[in-house]
Amino acid sequence: MARVVVDVMPKPEILDPQGKAVTGALGRLGYSGLTVRQGKRFEVEVDGDITDERLAEVRDAAEKLFANTVIETFDVRVDED
């Protein structure tokens, strides 16, 4: 069984309160120079081979269900592990 990973992130111009909170916590813990943007990761198990058509299906699902494309971007990739 193959795996496709969909990473969803807020668009750069969108405020990220969770990422800002984590960035602040890192500073308080003594970590400097680190800025965090928090997103989501979806792992999709695919029966059979990963074809261009199957990847297109996952992209379509990501656009319709996994990401709010008004405020988020997404990236679809095959997990090689």
Low-confidence runs? none
Mean pLDDT: 96
So, the CATH homologous superfamily? Phosphoribosylformylglycinamidine synthase subunit PurS
Helix content: 25-40%
The top-level CATH class is: Alpha Beta
The H/E string reads EHEHE
> Which topology does CATH recognise?
Mth169, Chain: A
The helix/strand class is alpha+beta
Strand content: 25-35%
What is the approximate shape? Answer: elongated
What does the main sheet amount to? 3 strands, antiparallel
Rg over CA atoms: 16 Å
Number of strands: 3
Walk across the major sheet and give the strand order.
2-1-3
Count the DSSP helices. 2
Integer count of domains = 1
CATH architecture term: 2-Layer Sandwich
Oligomer: single chain
Span from first to last CA?
11 Å
Could you write a compact summary of the structure shown?
By secondary structure, this protein is an alpha+beta fold.
Describe this structure in words.
The chain is of the alpha+beta class and 81 residues long. It has a single domain (2-78), classed as Phosphoribosylformylglycinamidine synthase subunit PurS (Mth169, Chain: A). The protein contains two helices and three strands. The protein has a three-stranded antiparallel β-sheet with strand order 2-1-3, with helices on one face. Belongs to the PurS family.
Search tags:
81 residues; alpha+beta; three-stranded antiparallel β-sheet; 3 strands; elongated; purine biosynthesis
Task: Furnish the topology, listing elements before pairings.
Layout: E1 2-10, H1 17-28, E2 40-46, H2 52-66, E3 72-78
